Amino acid sequence: MTALRVFRPAESECIHDTLTLIRDVLESHVLPEIEARGAAATARKYENAIAGFTAFLANGTRTTSSRATDPISDLECLKWQQDMISAGLAPSTINGKWRLISAVLRRMGPRGAGNPRGLGLVESVPYLQPLVAGMPHPAAVDLRILDAIYRYGTPDMSWPRPHAGVPTSANLRAWLCCAYNLAMRTRDLLSLKWDAVHWDPISPSPHSDSEHPHGWILFVPAKTSRRKPHPILLPMAECVRRHLESIRHDGRFVFGAEMSRCSNRKLYGCRKRPGEWYRLLDYAATHVEGGFRRFPIKAMRSTSNTQYNRISRGLGAHVLGHAKRGVNDLFYQQWEAELIDAVNRLPQPESFTAGRAAANRQTMFI
To answer: Which element (helix H / strand E) includes 233?
Structure first.
């Protein structure tokens, strides 16, 4: 069994406990480099992962007594992993947290061929076998359920608080409409800025002369901004523009500052208390015969992808930003015309498109 063992300094030197050492390395070596790259979201993930890990160890057998400087063992890491499983976290989420924690522990470890940036503060680092993550099963949401959430869930919500004269229900309804139509990642949509919204019919891309009467959304996904900084350009559906115009204000963030900084815990809550997203679903479910199961926000992205692919196979990958950027896509293919056509044909929940022709008000189960 390997263990993270702190080197013992001379008697006259101060001996820091192991958990403090982990936090010190995070703050003095890891975070500054991440922040210098402009990856604030990644920095927060590191902080949250290390805070949870050290809190778990501190609340266990490790105290500020003589055990504080004991090595962090494989067994302690395994117990942390089991605690995460008991908390209901998915294997992929737990593995992701461990990758961040392990990166900090390795930074503390001895320098060598496999760890060229090690600081040599510890003799070795603990090992934890990753969990086997199951095959993903993309969720799809019945558009009638989205309609119920829009109609019946939003009026009962007190979050987010009204801002700039925009009522809570109007803000949430605009956000729901955009979540389905734009298929953006949750964090990208929550923090969407007005400078990404282009009201002019002319495409904002300097390489395109396409026009769309309802305007465009142009943004770079935060998740891939460093390694794949290609902007995603999407034409706005009529209902998207109408909803955005209804909440237009002079602030920086489309859906307000409160939503822009909303954490996953605030959205999904914990075992004892549901978060705001699940609260919204629960309100709507009381108006649906037999109710419906809760689903993550990501399910609307999957639903949109499926619908776009039904219109034109492979188009969903371009909307979501997953398309391979080969020579043909980068230098020869113009997708705007096909996207405009797809946006106009995308099935919509009835409440999203009040006044639209019945033929376009599709609420089929997908």
So the answer is: strand 232-235
